[in-house]
Amino acid sequence: MTQELTTSLQADTARPSGGSGWWRDAVIYQVYVRSFADSDGDGIGDLRGARERLPHLAGLGADAVWLTPFYASPQADGGYDVADYRAVDPLFGTLADADDLVRTAHELGLRVIVDVVPNHTSDRHPWFRAALTGRPGGPDRARYHFRPGRGAGGELPPNDWESVFGGPAWTRTTGPDGAPGEWYLHLFAPEQPDLNWDCSEVREEFDSVLRFWLDLGVDGFRIDVAHGMVKAAGMPDIGRTEQAKLIGSQVLPFFDQDGVHEIHRSWRRLLDSYPGDRIGVAEAWAPSPERLALYVRPDELHQAFNFQFLKSPWDAAAMRTVIDESLAATASVGAPTTWVLSNHDVVRHPTRYADGSPARGLRRARAAALLTLALPGSVYLYQGEELGLPEVVDLPDACRQDPAFFRTSAEGQDGQDGQDGFRDGCRVPLPWSRSGASYGFGPGGSWLPQPAAWAGLSVEAQTGDPGSTLELYRSALALRRELPGLGDSGMTWLDAPAGVLALARPGFVCTLNTLGEEVELPVPGRALLSSAPLAYRAATVRIPPDCCAWWAI
Ligand code: NOJ
Each residue of 475-532: pLDDT tens digit? Predict the structure, then answer.
């Protein structure tokens, strides 16, 4: 059936106002350091390995790299438990390696964003060690949230808050005499005590930490749990269990409190005091695009990951709604939208979209990439998505490291099409070559086993193969740089049949068929790129199932 593709105006998202910073339409590549490239053969990725592989990012066409935490840490949560914010963990290298990496990245034209983890420290941080030996009510405990327990003997947690990783968000301390004492708050693992941002010393310390890395030359920060630093006054009960299911769907007494914005405003002032457009990107789970947009108001952060888009099902109407709502919300504050399909905390999108068929998952992932890269705003890519890597769903329990695995029973998880909702399956080290102990990840093995089939998905195997996912990404990113219409400008929906999305940018059209069957459309223009082969008949084009195509008009 030939469907009409008309050029009537459906919705016009005006060009957002508010400057022309590099980040407004940048493609930023996330390096999960532990799993990217290993230089010394200990099976764990490191900064030197990452530096050696930066040409891959430059060749791909990325504008910047985001490095996940490489700071001194006992690694209770993959480095999101920081014991020293100014030191590099020996696992990942030295401060000199960080310096070299930043320099090399800049020489290659890549900006560098590093993580900052302000909601909590490690339980090995000197502040927390001092807090444990300090007296209740004393200054050492004031940097964290210590409370007496409820119940006659203080044997119950101070409130009903649950850890995001499962179990209570409070752990009871033990005094030097072995007697049970106060409880402390940890929204994540017990090894990650929450800081008290009402304490001025905490604020001053983080200003100093930001300056330390800015002075070293980084171009910005990805702010971990940017929605969590401020807790509701009095820390009220929530009154229900399974609180993790509420995250991102409502304001909670510990997440998305209005008080966090004042911290982000002060950090913006600090970033702006440095030359060269240094940025902050919020990892913020907000209940609506409007609440998320508050984090990117002109005097706050520059970007906020759009997790609503990440969570959207493979459904044209749902995707269109989330795109419209996101663009409208960010445009209302003059900010660009920040699109993301995967990261180190979620099931990789080829597996999320698979619906029981890995081949379908990959088809959809390739199409989703082209849709995402055609939207106005910036895009974060998660390492390995350019290779079409799926989630690894059969990791043996013995090699798991995700603290959530140890704190939650598998039945408690929602089994989101991956293995069970835990996060090791998206963190398996990258395959760079067809052979070698860890497919080129490093000279030794790899901290999580890589599937044998990944030899064929390696950078080496895909390079030069015009049908490969890697070459699709390379072509898409090259076109995105070349075509002026794909920058930070508005977009228009075109009429399209149900199940198909068609959007126009200046001189450009993108068509996405989300259906399980081919659709026939009038040829929109000159084909630039498509995620699967197209077939033409006279003035129509047949777009295969789960396929996205780019056109010049
Ligand atoms: C978000 C990070 O991305 C995740 O990996 C971490 O476990 C939590 N924040 C806690 O820091």
Answer: 999 999 999 999 888 999 999 999 999 999 999 999 999 999 999 999 999 999 999 9
Quote the pLDDT of residue 417. Answer: 37
Question: Residue written as tokens 């597996």?
Answer: 351
Instruction: For residue 99, indicate whether it is catalytic.
Output: no
User: Could you give the CA distance from residue 20 to residue 343 in angstroms, rounded to a whole number?
Assistant: 26
Relative to the CA of 78, which ligand 1 atom is closest? 5
Amino acid (one-letter) located at 290 = E
pLDDT (0 to 100) of residue 421: 57
pLDDT at 551 exceeding the cut of 90: yes
* Residue 550 or residue 14, greater confidence: 550
**Residue 131 in tokens:** 């807090």
Q: How far apart are the first and last CA of the chain?
A: 23
283 is catalytic: yes
Which helix (DSSP H) or strand (DSSP E) does residue 309 occupy?
helix 307-311
- Kindly tell me the sign of the dihedral angle through the C-alpha atoms of 104, 110, 111, 113: negative
Out of 32, 163, 225, 305, mutate this one to test ligand 1's pocket (max ligand atoms within 8 Å of CB): namely: 225
| Closest to 222 measured CA to CA, from 69, 384, 423, 109 | 69
Atom 1 of ligand 1, nearest CA residue: 224
Question: What does the angle CA 12 – CA 317 – CA 355 come to, to the nearest 5 degrees?
Answer: 140
Q: Which residues have C-beta within 8 Å of that of residue 518, sequence separation ≥ 6? A: 542, 543, 544, 545
Residue type, 142: A
Residue ranges per structural domain of the chain: 126-185, 399-425
pTM: 0.95
* CA–centroid distance, residue 447 to ligand 1 (Å): 19
Ligand 1 center to 224 CA (angstroms):
6
The pLDDT score that the predictor gives to residue 13 is 36
Distance CA 392, CA 203 (A): 40
According to DSSP, residue 194 is labeled: B
Rounded to whole angstroms, the maximal C-alpha distance in the chain is 86
| Closest atom, ligand 1, to C-alpha of 68 | 3
C-alpha 460: how far from chain center:
26
The protein residue whose alpha carbon is closest to atom 2 in ligand 1 is 224
Fold of 126-185: Oligo-1,6-glucosidase; domain 2 (3.90.400)
Q: Determine the Cα–Cα distance for residues 431 and 450; give it in Å rounded to an integer.
A: 8
